Amino acid sequence: MSSKQKVRSLFISDVHLANPNSQAKKLYDFLNNIEADYLFLLGDIVDLWKLSSHKGRWYKEHELVLKQIMEFARSGTRIIYIPGNHDPFFRHFVGSHLGPVEVHEEYIHSLATEQTLLLIHGDRFDDELYMGDAWHVIGEWLYEGIVSANRWLNVVRHKLDKPYWSLSVALKMNSKKARHYIERFENLAVNYARSQGTDGVICGHIHQSKLTYIDGMIYGNDGDWVETCSALVETQEGYLELLSVNASHDPVSARLATA
Ligand SMILES: [Mn+2]
Asked: Which fold has domain 5-256?
């Protein structure tokens, strides 16, 4: 008998395959222990920016994750892919299929509770967020540097038997500007979902996992597999849970009653 965790839906994004900072091995282990009726890939699964700048590379573990996703399809999981800003090439396939994978620009998912969630990557708010602000260009560049440095720091921490620690998450939480930006993003996402008539939104993009209610709307951000190594799941009963592999204790860091 399989001891895998069975969920109704699994939401992951921002895996950044081909980027050396992708923690694909952790995702692989995570996916090996879970079964889902629906798998939602919410963008930036492959980092085409890295590949095209020749700073990326196609790693063996990265290939394994793609094969694993195909394995989900073979065992009957319905897979829906919403491309992001690092894999926009796949937007050419919106409305059609890439093998067993359905590609959509946005998607409305009905929970087991019959509440509805708008699924998006989240880059559609970039223009509004960064109006006349060059900060994000520097931000993206800085972020890559910080994450790379952090990768080496955690190799050392691992050797010392210390739990994973994220410099970039610490910086984000301690920077007023970053917190303000995250809050604006969350509000834009929730307001957009409201305009689409859903009960909430699930997105990725900002690498900041969260599961909460904002103004009576469900807000879920599934985080990323560069640092937080987190995913959102919907249980068979329609609860939402935020799972984090890097959490040193209980992997469930938040649970949201949805009905
Ligand atoms: Mn993105």
From this structure: Purple Acid Phosphatase; chain A, domain 2 (3.60.21)
